[in-house]
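Model it.
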Amino acid sequence: MPQSVHHPPRFHPEAAIPVAAGLTWLWCAASFGIVGFLFSVIPGCLLLASGVGMLLWTGDLRIPQFAAAGGLLGVPLALPATFVTGPGTAALLVAASIVSFLAAGRISLRQEPHHRDVPEPDESLGLYAQVAVDDALLASMQIRLDVRTGDEWTQISREVMEAAEMFEERGWLEKPIDYHRTPPVLESPRIERKRMRGRVYEHLTFDSAYEPWDGEPGRERWLSFGPTRTAHAWVLRHPGPPRPWLVGLHGYQMGSAAIDLLAFEPGYLHERLGMNLILPVLPLHGPRAVRRSGDRFLGGDPLDSIHAEAQAMWDVRRILDWVRAEGAPAVGALGYSLGGYQASLLACFDEELACVIAGIPLTDISRAVWRHAPMLHLLHAEREGIVRDHVAEILRVVSPLVLEPRIPHERRYIFGGVADQLVTPDHVRDLWEHWDRPRIEWYQGAHITFRSHAHVRKMVREALRAGALTVEGGVAGGA
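Modeled.
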């Protein structure tokens, strides 16, 4: 995408900070004994190696991520030094780790080209810290990624080519809405009452009944993922007369009741604003995971991503049928990150939604994979002829930047962080443009800190009230 003129610095002098911090850690490690030495090696090596890397290889996205991880790990790992060499040494190591953490965030922020139509970041220590938190999270994701074999890349390449041919032949690339079938109405899901942290909620399950098209590449593999064939959702609803419902769509690697209920703030959305909440679990997440939550959803196999997105829409549309059959006077959708992708896509299927709020929304899977995947993965993929344009082409059938929204313009809402490292601002900006520039709130922050920005919360509340979803003072949409 075109970008405004912006010239990131060629060298980052502040990279010397993690270099010095790493050397300090390794120097002190010799006095910590064998156990202390082993713990000290982790932040020491991370900070020293990444600091040197940021000095010599400016612009590599991943190096500051590991510097941030080293700084973050250094804080708790330094505390035991109090009992070995005294509080002075511990304080020195904690300070060195914190300053390195902030330096990593500053470098990441400054080397990111500015995107047009996105506000400039207002640099501050707080913003550096928010960026560094994103970076540390990305470093942990890098470590956990599976390494694919040559045979797997060959299979992926073959599936991409076969899918492109099939999708073109059936007209789905030109009219991607036709790729999606209308799911059967959900009539009698299984519901089990549960309790967590003193709060009663319902665990809703049903047989998804989703299957890829006959002959579609990756179909048999997808059907072999047994856990994803059962749909799950967490439900919080009020007794008494029917109330509005909010569908909350979770982010990548979430999907457990403990995490999802925390993310969607039941004390605020359910109790204070008075809505019923239903939180569907995305395919390949939580109890639907094949191995770890989120594995294969964005793992670099485009057909798995397509089937996951198609099944997500299938399941959520069935859930919407059930919610409306329960007497819901209005239903809205709110999604965060990967859930923002689902909310944006859902807006292309259901014109009756009272509002759709796409929060920090991922909107382009191929763009995200090519940014965040390890370079070794991309090298093997491109050697097999898997290029971003080919992947992006078949992903059109599940792209919120290609399918047209069906809900009216005034019911569309977006928010995003100007310094987001996981979902870079161009994802958010492109959805805003595709949606004909509806209301958008940009906040001076990174990916996971949107709740700390009051104007974002204000916009969400105003969107819910405009859709007559809140029940404050006993009146839907009331004050």
